[in-house]
Amino acid sequence: MTMRAKERLLAAVVSQFHRPHGLGGRLAGWEMTLRPSNRRRNRWAVALLEVQPHDCVLEVGFGPGLAIHELARRATDGLVMGIDHSEVMIRQATWRNRGAVRQGRVELRLGSAADLGEFSATFNKVLSVNNFGMWPDPQARLKELLGAMRPGGRAAIVSQPRSPGATAATTDRIGRETAERLEEAGFTNVRRETLPLRPPVVCVLAEAPQE
Predict the structure, then answer these.
(1) Are 202 and 178 in contact (CB under 8 A)?
(2) Which pLDDT tens digit goes with each residue over 123-160?
(3) pTM assigned to the model
(4) Helices marked H in 59-114
(5) Are 63 and 29 in contact (CB under 8 A)?
């Protein structure tokens, strides 16, 4: 295999984790589901949100629905909504959360961070795991997100760098930049938490200002 062919193959594989589609997308979804680090990262992020039974929660970029499952398990009398730009991921996440979907406690729709204005609900909690880096005009999206949150609501932006050679320093840089963006968008009480995986995961937590 030539170097150019290898580069094309790598680009095709990476694209499936950005926007899964077709058979390759289905395989990427199952890989994301089965990988222990993904499961641990999502459980950790949901725990940091401190979701309560009556919360209305949004996840942006829910992938195969691992965190949606954890959120629904906690928001037993609330509503969990999700938006993702992959039809393959919507099918997998709907199947994985089919019980809560049938009960009307989970609603999943096709779209991206650019479509946040379409939600009629306002949210107590918002989660995004390894998706923030894909948002078009992230500063504008954060301001829209803030407008969709209830006063005192909590947001968690989670990132684990996947680029070749990523280190703890990479994670630290991403965490600092994300925290700065959240503060610039008007969020308050911004803080960072780190999960010691390889490379480390950073969760930047922030709150919508109290009225």
Answers:
(1) yes
(2) 999 999 999 988 989 999 999 999 999 999 999 999 99
(3) 0.83
(4) 66-74, 87-96, 98-102
(5) yes
Average pLDDT of span 12-32: 46
Query: Which candidate, 108, 157, 112, 119, places its Cα nearest to that of 135?
Result: 112
Q: Look up residue 175 and give its two tokens.
A: 């965490």
Rounded Cα gap, residues 146 and 133, in angstroms: 18
141, two tokens: 């999206």
Digit-coded pLDDT (tens) for 83-107: 998 898 899 999 999 999 999 999 9
Q: At 10, is the secondary structure helix, strand, or coil?
A: helix
- CA atoms 109, 112, 113, 114: torsion sign: negative
Cβ contacts of residue 115 below 8 Å, gap of 6+? 83
As a whole number of angstroms, the longest Cα–Cα distance in the chain is: 61
Q: How far is CA 119 from CA 17, 84, 101, 107, 149, in A?
A: 25, 13, 17, 11, 11
Rounded distance, CA 153 to CA 188, Å? 10
d(CA 200, CA 161): 8
